[in-house]
Structures are given as structure tokens and as C-alpha cells.
Design goal:
- The complex is a heterodimer of chains A (338) and B (587).
- Chain A has helices spanning 3-18, 20-23, 122-158, 160-175, 178-188, 195-209, 212-226, 229-236, 241-277, 289-293, 299-304, 310-334, and strands spanning 44-46, 52-64, 69-91, 95-104.
- With 338 residues, chain A is α+β, with helices and mostly antiparallel strands.
- Chain A has a four-stranded antiparallel beta sheet.
- In chain A, helix 1 packs antiparallel against helix 12.
- With 587 residues, chain B is an alpha+beta fold.
- Helices cover 30% and strands 21% of the residues of chain B.
- In chain B, strand 5 and strand 6 (105-110) form a beta hairpin.
- The chains are: A alpha+beta (338), B alpha+beta (587).
- The interface between A and B is medium-sized, with 27 and 36 residues.
């Protein structure tokens, strides 16, 4: 598959999370305490009296203790409306708005993929959670790739003691158990830590620990390129190190680095999901796909509410897109037709 | 005539006297049984019970963990026992007792003809030996503190082979309750290890069955490490049913070890275990859903003795405290601040969301499950965000345009609620509190810590703001929580180990708790403890939230299944349990 369509699809996924405030009908932290673990809301076009409605609507839900389930309260309908005003939100931390793509009139509410244990809308949390999980992966991969390119490039280009030193340090980092390191880092920090700081912490740790693998790869590519005749020729003609790196080595490295990046992002998304799953990522009430999945550690949730799996299921297409992109980038870098 | 009548009377008297003597002799030979009131059952079968972990020991003198105690108390007995159902004391190995007028001396008459599970007779020497062991500092028994009254260990004296006298330094209100959970040890087996100073190491899990004896309904049979621990019927047990049949009915009790609560629920659901005693509300609802198709019964016993609460750090700021920490501590010490928090918390929401309705909202620290001591006249203010805002406004707190609550120095009110990792229910409660207090403009962070790290912060370093925690589970008597309520107590959570009470109300609680401890008049004790509950509810050193229901389950067909809210729950009457349909063989 070509790179562009894949990039387009990934861009759409990321755009959906950036516009989470607009696309989601609810504030992700808003609790409906009478509607814990409500199933996905059914959209209706026909009311209880048999009347057809062009505008879809939902019925309110009420807990029926006798049936041990939610039942629709058919005495009143809540029409679904578009571009409604609702809870205020910020888009990419830049401007505030309160207009949502869709929502319902009271009593509502509209849970497209059900609600969680506090009666919070899973769909709104899923989109907002994607901001944390997907961007943590992207930024973590960018950070580790950046550090990996610089250190791997230096090691491969200068060789000798520089190479030895950087590669030995890389081996130490490869041997570090990152989960325990994060436990230790979290213990050393004060109790009170804002969600944004927790996010940066996760990104920094997974990014800075993950540089060793790309560095080893880049070092190998640079080392083999520096031994090529045209590099030796340029060097003998007095080319500077910067010129050599920019003109002859970077073109060799860039394709591989991008491929490596496309492989690293899903790994780091998974790292964030794992950390949050174990309570080491961003804390409540800020959602991430990892802390949304944490509820599945409980037997009751695991055995009763299928919609709690949605963030985990969403990882599959996202990862497949990244792996397809990595394949396409690899083919392009290797000169295969794509 | 008169001589004949006198002779007949004398003959009759001799006959009656001889008959009474014969009856006593027969009774003494047969044993002085305690007759239970439960349904008459049938003998046979085994019971599989789930435990969280393996017991560490079978030695009652050193056991502190609950799995060990669960196993040990099926094999041991005490002199006076707290009936887990009525929460009142009742005779056990002591069939009766007399209390001296000053309330300091107890004369206990032991049951006659009682034998240990190895057939050796039980007597006053065993009682003396047991108390000597528990009170010996070198043994390090956790029961030792319980047996110190008025600063001095109780003294135990043998009157005769069937009578012992216990004396205390001062009158003790719940003195009879002291004897509960004090297992009588076999001196014929343990005297030598005790003399040689190796009693603490005796009766580990590797003990041979022949080297173990107790007075409980079962005796140790075998332990397979990591898999199971098996107890078998004690043929010498001193209880009988109403028909005079020997108890226990069951041949065996098998403990299996399943580490997580979820896995326990799955094992019970699949029929691999017969009894589960500590179900969470979430798992209870899962099991309840399948109850119709499965072969088990579930019981919601209502509020137990456990209660969950949130409390604020009220320790004096240390030398290293930053200005921000000093400011936070000053908020927490203000009563209106704590009252506002209490008023804003949605207790009903906690009951509904966290416990699926299987808990009781509480406003005082003694839950309704504590039938004898709960003060039912405490006010139960309804949740009111407006009322909470008003309290804060009067206390000098204000609001920014964005709704953020600020103190009198215009600093935003922000703090952290800690609780222990792995306790899903407490984490959920903390998250609900976070959302409730957000409505007051407070910014609350929720942090979970490993339990030991949390306890260290609470009781040693005092580096925390607020904490969600739980207490309870042991005895219903107020004396069991002396260490929590006395200002000098090491577990006086919000400000432990005070040299002098920091506030007048803490001083009053100290005086009330000390007085009730030495008062024998139960009605007066109740009034004193009611006042303690009032003071706690008024001053809110802890903000009581909910008391979870005790939820248990048992395989269908288990007779005399009468679980209790006190500890041992479903196993408190294990000697009376029997299988209605499945008797006669292992399941």
C-alpha cells in the first residue's frame, strides 16, 4: 500500500482525538451516578406509539432492580441534535468552545458505547483518552528516535571511543526494566502531580529509555555508509563533517529512521496503555486508553460489560495502520515500487 | 407408725441421694456437653473453604494473619466465647463463672470431662499454662496486650482441677470478652517446647498430625504446600446437638488457597469451593446473576463492623514543612472545612456506584452492624453542595471567576487524597470524592500507594493531605478501638501519639473512653460511648462514609448455614454445618 493513504487515515485518527471535545457529546469527567455501566444507548426512529420520527431520538434509562438491568423509560423522548451547546472544552489547548457535533435534549443521555463505573460516557472518554495514549506514543517515539539518531549517528560516524562509550551506555539502557524504573521515578516525585505532568513524565521515561534500539540501528547504517567510496572521496576532497552528514549520510539514514519511527509509535502507545493500566500513567478523572482498560482487571467488569473493551479493540486497527505504514516506508526506502 | 414413716423417709432420701449421685457420676463420665440450638443434622461429608493465602502457622500463640486464625479457630476453643450471631458472650469451656463485687475477680468453673483432640483430658492446669504462654513477653503473642488490664497482666490461679480464678488490677468493663479468642493450649504437648524456649517455632505447617491437639471441632490432618490444608473431625469435641448426637457433623474441612478476590469468586462460581466469606459487592452481583443456574446460595448479611471513611492530616506541621503544606494543614484543622467536605460527599452515590447498593451510608463511626453500640440518634445531614459552600464562605474561603475555591490568602484549595493500591472500592470512593469536591471548587488529586508505604506516611512521616481508609472487623466492643480514639494512641489516625490532647474534644473523648473501659454498668457504658460517637460526628476527625455489607456464599444444601457479620462469618458455627443431600462422602 502507498504511504499517503495510510498517512491520511492516521491523520484522521489523530484529528478525531484532537477534536475530541467537539466530537464527543459529554465532558469526559461528567458523572451520571444513576447510570453506572449503562449499555450503549439505542437510537430510535419510531416511538412507543408507533409514530415515525425523521430525527433520531433516545429514551432515558432507569435501573430496574427486579430485572437487574436498565430499562428504557418510554414516557419521554430525547431527540438527538447536531451542533448543540454543551460542556465547555479546549481544542489542542488553544481556544475554548462549547459547541458539540451532537447531543441530546434532556433527559438523555446518549452513550454511544455505554458508560463506565461512574456513569461517564465511554465514547467521550474514548476520544479524549486517545489524545493521551496516541500522542504519548507519537511524542515518545519522536523523542527516542531523535536521541537515537543523534547518538547513533555520532557513534557510527566517529567510531573509536565515542562509539564504544555510546554503545555500552545503550546496552545499559536496553537492560533497564523500564516498568520498575517508572515505579521508582513515581515514588521519588511528590504525591501531588498534575495530569499534564504525569503525561510528560510517561512520555519522557518511555522516550528516553527507548533510544537505545534506534541508536544501534542508525549507528550500523552510518558506520556502513562512512566506509563507502563516495564518502571517502568527499572526505579526501576536504568535505567537512557537517557536509558529509547532511549530504551523504542523512539520505541513507532518513528512510530507515522513518520506518523505525513507524514501528516505535505503536510500541510506545502500548507502553503508555500498560503504564496507565497499572495506575502509573495519568490519574483520574483524565482518561487514557490504559486507565479506561484498568477496570477490566475486575472480574465483574470483565465478565459483564463488553463495551469496556473498546479502547483495547481500538488499538488493533491503529497498530495495523502503523505497521502497514512502516512496511510502505521500508519499501520506499529500499527502492521497491510502492 | 412414726418410726416406720421416719424409716421410709430415710430410705426414700437415701434412694434419691443415690440416684442424684449416680446421675452426676454418669454425667461426669459422659462429659459435660454443651448442647447447641441449631437444626439437627446428619454426619458426613466435607466442606471446601477458600482462603486468600496459606496460613503461616497453626500456633494460636503467635498467629496474627487472618488465614492462620481462620484455620486455628476451627481447631481451638476458648473459655468464654462471643456469640458471633448475637454479639453477646456465652459459656464455652467455662460452663459458668462468678464475678466478685468489685468486678476484679472472676471464678470460672470448667466443663467436666472435656478432652483434647488427642484424647488427653483438659483441666485447670491447661488454663494456667495457656495464660502463662500468652502473657510471656518472650513468646511475643499478639494476645498479650489484650490481657493487660490497668497496666498489669491479669493473674490466673488454680482453685481446683475444675475451677480457676482470674484477677485484674482494676475493674474492666468488657472483662468476659477478654476470654474470647484466647485458645486453650494442651500443656501435655507444649509445656516442654515452652520450657525450652521454642514454643514460637512450634506447630508450624510442617507439624505431624499426631503432634497437634486442640479443643475445637476439628483437628489438623494434613497440609499440602500451596494446595490445601485438611482438618478432620475431632472425636472428643464437647458439643452435642439437641438429639445428643456428637458434633461436628462434617468429616473434613478442606482449605484451598486462591490469592485474588476475583479468582475466589470464579472458583466458587464453578463449584470448586463450598463457602466464600469475603465477597466484594461487584463479585456478589456477578454471582447473584448466575445463582438460578448454579448450585449455590448467597447471603447479604447487611452492614458489618467494617466502615470506610476519609480523614484529613491534622498533625502539627514539621520543621521541614513548606509554606504550601502549612497552608493546607491550616485548612484541614478548620472544622467548617471538614464539615463542608462531609456535607458535599454523596454517600448514597458511593453506596450505589461502588457497592451496587450493598452498603449502608453512615454519619458516625460505629456502623449499624454493631447492634449493641451504634448510636442511632446521630444526625444524618442530607447532602448539600449549597450548604457546604455556605460553610466555606463563612470560614473565609472565596471563589475565583472560574469557580476555583480559594482561601483567605487567595490561594487555590488543592490537595491529594491517598488510598491503598489494589483496593478498588477505596479508589472508586476517592474518585467520587474528587468529583464531589470539584463542585465546591476544590481541586483534588487521587493517588494510590502500596499499603505499607501508605501506613508509613500516615503514622510515621505524616506526609499526606487526606486519606480514604477503613477500620473494623474485630470485636464489636468499644475497647477494641481504644488505640484509635485515645489521643495518645499509635493509630489515632489524624494525629497519632499526642503527648497531650490537641483539642478539648479529644481530651473529652480520652476521658470518656477511659471511663467506659472501667465501668461495669452496661447502660452507663453505652451512654458514654454514645457521647464519644457524638463528639466524633460533630468534630469530624474522620468523615464516616459507608459500611459495606457482609456478603457470603455457600453451596446449596448446607444445613445450619447462619453466617454472621462478625469475624469468622460463615464458619462461626462450623461444628453445626451439615450437608442435607450430599452427606456420606466427599464431594
Amino acid at each position: 500500500m502507498r504511504c499517503r493513504p495510510l498517512l491520511g487515515l492516521l491523520a484522521l485518527v489523530y484529528l478525531a482525538t484532537v477534536l475530541a471535545g467537539f466530537l464527543s457529546p459529554e465532558d469526559p469527567a461528567a458523572q451520571h451516578r444513576e447510570l453506572a455501566f449503562a449499555p450503549p444507548t439505542r437510537l430510535h426512529f419510531m416511538d412507543a406509539a408507533g409514530g415515525l420520527h425523521l430525527r433520531p431520538f433516545v429514551y432515558g434509562l432507569a435501573w430496574s432492580a427486579a430485572a437487574d438491568a436498565y430499562a428504557e423509560d418510554r414516557s419521554r423522548i430525547s431527540p438527538v441534535r447536531f451542533f448543540v451547546r454543551g460542556a465547555p472544552y479546549r481544542v489542542a489547548g488553544t481556544f475554548s468552545a462549547d459547541r458539540h457535533l451532537f447531543g441530546t435534549d434532556a433527559p438523555g443521555p446518549l452513550f454511544l458505547i455505554g458508560s463506565d463505573d461512574f456513569g461517564r460516557d465511554q465514547f467521550s472518554r474514548f476520544l479524549h483518552g486517545g489524545q493521551i495514549s496516541l500522542f504519548a506514543g507519537l511524542l515518545g517515539a519522536g523523542l527516542s528516535l531523535g536521541v537515537g539518531i543523534v547518538l547513533g549517528g555520532l557513534a557510527g560516524f566517529y567510531g573509536a571511543w565515542v562509539d564504544e562509550t555510546i554503545m555500552r551506555v545503550a546496552e545499559v539502557f536496553l537492560a533497564l526494566p523500564w516498568m520498575y524504573l517508572l515505579f521508582a521515578v513515581r515514588m521519588a516525585l511528590p504525591l501531588q502531580i498534575a495530569p499534564a505532568d504525569a503525561f510528560l513524565l510517561v512520555v519522557s521515561v518511555i522516550g528516553l529509555i527507548g533510544w537505545a534500539r534506534p541508536a544501534r540501528l542508525i549507528r550500523g547504517v552510518v558506520l556502513s555508509a562512512t566506509l563507502r567510496d563516495y564518502v571517502a572521496a568527499a572526505r579526501s576532497l576536504g568535505a567537512s563533517d557537517v557536509y558529509l552528514l547532511r549530504r551523504h549520510l542523512w539520505p541513507q539514514v532518513s528512510g530507515i529512521a522513518l520506518t523505525q519511527g513507524a514501528l516505535l509509535v505503536p510500541q510506545f502507545v502500548l507502553a503508555e496503555v500498560t503504564l496507565s493500566f497499572f495506575g502509573l500513567g495519568v490519574g483520574e478523572p483524565v482518561p487514557s486508553w490504559g486507565n479506561m482498560l484498568a477496570g477490566l482487571q475486575r472480574y465483574q467488569v470483565l465478565s459483564s460489560y463488553w463495551w469496556m473493551f473498546v479502547p483495547g479493540l481500538a488499538l488493533i486497527p491503529v497498530f495495523l495502520l502503523y505497521y502497514a505504514l512502516a512496511d510502505a516506508l521500508h519499501r520506499r526506502a529500499a527502492g521497491f515500487p510502492v | 407408725m412414726n418410726g416406720r414413716l421416719a424409716g421410709a423417709m430415710l430410705g426414700l432420701t437415701c434412694l434419691v441421694a443415690a440416684s442424684v449421685q449416680g446421675q452426676a457420676a454418669r454425667q461426669a463420665a459422659a462429659g459435660d456437653w454443651l448442647v447447641t440450638r441449631g437444626e439437627v443434622g446428619r454426619a458426613g461429608g466435607q466442606l471446601v473453604v477458600i482462603e486468600r493465602t496459606e496460613p503461616r502457622t497453626l500456633n494460636p500463640a503467635t498467629a496474627i494473619d487472618s488465614p492462620s486464625r481462620d484455620v486455628i479457630w476451627r481447631t481451638m476453643a476458648d473459655l468464654i466465647h462471643i456469640n458471633r450471631d448475637t454479639q453477646q458472650i456465652e459459656p464455652a469451656l467455662a460452663r459458668s463463672w462468678v464475678v466478685s463485687r468489685d468486678g476484679r475477680r472472676f471464678t470460672l468453673s470448667l466443663r467436666r470431662g472435656v478432652r483434647f483432640s488427642d484424647g488427653h483430658p483438659f483441666g485447670a492446669d491447661d488454663v494456667l499454662f495457656s495464660f502463662r504462654v500468652y502473657m510471656d513477653e518472650k513468646v511475643g503473642s499478639p494476645l498479650r496486650d489484650q490481657l493487660i488490664v490497668g497496666g498489669q497482666p491479669i493473674s490466673v490461679r488454680k482453685v481446683d482441677q475444675e475451677t480457676v480464678q482470674v484477677e485484674m488490677a482494676e475493674p474492666y468493663a468488657a472483662a468476659e470478652r477478654l476470654f474470647d479468642n484466647v485458645a486453650m493450649l494442651p500443656s501435655h504437648l507444649l509445656e516442654q517446647p515452652y520450657r525450652e524456649g521454642r514454643l514460637s517455632a512450634t506447630w508450624g505447617l510442617g507439624t505431624a498430625a499426631a503432634g497437634f491437639a486442640g479443643l475445637g471441632p476439628f483437628r489438623f490432618k494434613e497440609h499440602v504446600a500451596g494446595q490445601r490444608l485438611v482438618l478432620e473431625r475431632n472425636p472428643y469435641y464437647w458439643k452435642r446437638d439437641r438429639d445428643g448426637k456428637p458434633l461436628p457433623y462434617l468429616d473434613q474441612v478442606v482449605f484451598v488457597f486462591v490469592p485474588t478476590e476475583d479468582a475466589q469468586a470464579v472458583r466458587f462460581q464453578s463449584g470448586e469451593a463450598d463457602i466464600t466469606t469475603r465477597l466484594s459487592a461487584a463479585n456478589f452481583s456477578v454471582l447473584l446473576r448466575d445463582q438460578g443456574e448454579r448450585n449455590y446460595d448467597l447471603a447479604d448479611l447487611g452492614a458489618g463492623l467494617d466502615y470506610t471513611f476519609v480523614f484529613f492530616n491534622q498533625n502539627a506541621p514539621g520543621e521541614k514543612a513548606t509554606p504550601a503544606m502549612r497552608r493546607q494543614l491550616s485548612w484541614f484543622r478548620q472544622l467548617p472545612f471538614r464539615q463542608a467536605v462531609s456535607l458535599a460527599i454523596d454517600r448514597e452515590g458511593i453506596v450505589r456506584l461502588v457497592y451496587r447498593g450493598r452498603a449502608t451510608p453512615i454519619w458516625g463511626h460505629v456502623p449499624p452492624g454493631n447492634k449493641l453500640w451504634a448510636n442511632r440518634s446521630l444526625p444524618r445531614p442530607a447532602r448539600s453542595i449549597e450548604g457546604a459552600r455556605e460553610l466555606l464562605r463563612k470560614a473565609g474561603f472565596g471563589s475565583r471567576a472560574d469557580g476555583t475555591l480559594v482561601d483567605s490568602d487567595s490561594q487555590p484549595v488543592e490537595f491529594t487524597v491517598v488510598t491503598n493500591t489494589g483496593n478498588t472500592e477505596r479508589i472508586q470512593i476517592a474518585t467520587i470524592i474528587q468529583d464531589d469536591l470539584k463542585q465546591l471548587g476544590m481541586r483534588v488529586n487521587v493517588v494510590t500507594l502500596e499499603l505499607r508505604a501508605l501506613i508509613d506516611r500516615l503514622l510515621t512521616t505524616h506526609e499526606y493531605d487526606a486519606c480514604v481508609l477503613g477500620l473494623g472487623g474485630g470485636d464489636a466492643d468499644p475497647n477494641s478501638e481504644m488505640n484509635v480514639w485515645l489521643s495518645s494512641g499509635n493509630t489515632h489516625l489524624w494525629n497519632p501519639g499526642q503527648a497531650q490532647p490537641a483539642t478539648p474534644w479529644e481530651a473529652e473523648i480520652d476521658a470518656l473512653m477511659r471511663r467506659q473501659m472501667t465501668t461495669r454498668d452496661v447502660a452507663l457504658r453505652k451512654r458514654l460511648y454514645d457521647r464519644v460517637q457524638e463528639l466524633v460526628a460533630q468534630n469530624l476527625p474522620i468523615i464516616s462514609l459507608v459500611s459495606p455489607s457482609v456478603l457470603v456464599g455457600a453451596t446449596r444444601g448446607l444445613g445450619n448455614f447462619r453466617p454472621t457479620v462478625l469475624d469468622h462469618h460463615a464458619l462461626s458455627n462450623v461444628e453445626e454445618l451439615f450437608w442435607r443431600r450430599r452427606a456420606g462422602g466427599p464431594q
